[in-house]
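Look at one record.

>
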Amino acid sequence: MTLQFSAEVEDGAAQALDDQIEALTGSLTVKQQAFIHHYLRHRNVTGAYRHAYDVSKSSYNTYRRNAHALIKSPIMQEIITLHGRRTMLATRITQEEIVSKWWTIANMPITEVVKLHVPPCRYCHGINHAFQWTTKREFREAHDRAVAELCIGLTAGDSSDMATAISDGKTTDPSLPNCDGGFGFDIRGVPKAECPECRGRGGPPILEITDTDLLSPEARLIIQGIKKTPHGIEVVFADRIKALENIAKYFGMFASRLTDEIENPLEQLARRLMAQSGTVPVVPDEDLQLSPNYLNAIEDVSEIEDLHFSRDDGESGDYPEP
């Protein structure tokens, strides 16, 4: 009964949000509706404005300014907020869960997925630091190859006699491998500082990738993709810095202007004039008071070209239309 009641409550809340969104959207003009629908789908302000309005006779700076003025209007902000709540309700995910996932991405060590290991060299753990073989099979195969090279150019009978003599220990050659260092070489071991061959530096580094079936759900969260390249397997990780930025924004740590925002050139000039003279009454653009109800007074947003905003978000002008 509890689950059924909870589902009914969620359905009712979803319907209430849908009704609010429909009512607010219905109060917009056709062009404004096209604008907000396109924005909610692609999250690009200037692209949504180009989609909804004829900008063929406007400069990029003009319609970008109009686009940002429109998206900052109270009714547009309310629609965006309601859509966000509706999406969260549909996915049954809370803000706290999203922040928790960001925190996991920002803090999960990538060594849970990939590790750079420096193995010992073949002489590190050998008896008296002689060459150490992994298994007896490996030694036999290397020994047989060396014998075959020594027999190159000999007749069949001579080759057989040479192999027999080497096997009986009657003939020795410095090119033949020996097993004085013993067996059991482990590539996962550690180098030894007292090794006379590598002096603790070990062998070539090895990049180890953990089997994805063995990864924890948290470790899988930091993997954005895995692809095969001509140089091997490449693991693409989620952006840890971006995750931290999202957390900081959630907690309001970026309330002031970010360093990557673009400042209006007129505002820069005004600030310089104010710093140079105490008698010139220059007022920066950010102090101008704009009416928040312009959507109700102006049907066509293209008429608000003269609105000035002291800052923009630095959005690129290149916008791929869907």
